[in-house]
Write a structure and sequence with these properties.
This protein is an alpha+beta fold and 181 residues long. Helix content is 22%, strand content 32%. The chain is built from four helices and ten strands. The two termini are 23 Å apart.
Length: 181
């Protein structure tokens, strides 16, 4: 593990947000730049199920399609679980061998499945802009998981980001409002 000799690993820091309207620039960048996240659902008995997903954030909700990648069944556990228990969690994270660069956003929310409508069409458009593979898939004809965030927890191990996070005024999170590096 490489480490900056001029800094020390900051203690774990988490912040709770009551609204997605205000996040740090670092959390915004992580959300918009991540290609995958991990969706956790649970059935009516509380048995957890966690899977990697592709997603977009439209400024209000996180959206993930049921795409055409090969699956063992059309009766997906995540869809069954959401029908039984709409409470979900989504983890968007960044891993690096330099542990001073670790970060994540944990989203607690309520999920629903859309099969059509304006919100579905808007999500398809964003997904096709983010993932070239979706441009040739019929995701416009397939179910879309939409997660309304209820609570966000943000964490970063990098000391510089920690202090910037503590000092910086939060700003609105809007699609396209972050700097890309």
């Amino acid at each position: 593990m490489s480490k900056n000799p001029n800094s020390t690993l900051a203690p774990p820091v988490s912040r709770l947000f009551r609204s997605t309207a205000q996040l740090t620039p670092q959390a915004s960048k992580l959300i918009y730049s991540a290609c995958t996240a991990h969706l956790a659902t649970a059935d009516k008995s509380g048995v957890p199920h966690v899977i990697p997903i592709c997603f977009v954030f439209d400024g209000k909700s996180f959206c993930s399609p049921i795409d055409e990648k090969p699956k063992r069944t059309t009766q997906l556990k995540r869809l069954k679980n959401i029908a039984e228990n709409p409470t979900v969690a989504l983890v968007i994270d960044r891993y690096d061998e330099d542990w001073c660069k670790l970060a994540y956003v944990l989203v607690h929310g309520k999920a629903r499945v859309l099969r059509s409508g304006e919100r579905h069409r808007a999500a398809v458009k964003l997904l096709r802009a983010k993932y070239r593979q979706y441009r040739t898939m019929a995701i416009d004809e397939r179910p879309m998981i939409v997660i309304a965030p209820k609570q966000l927890v943000c964490w970063s191990a990098e000391p510089q980001r920690f202090w910037a996070f503590m000092k910086r005024t939060r700003r609105s999170l809007k699609p396209g409002s972050i700097e890309r590096s």
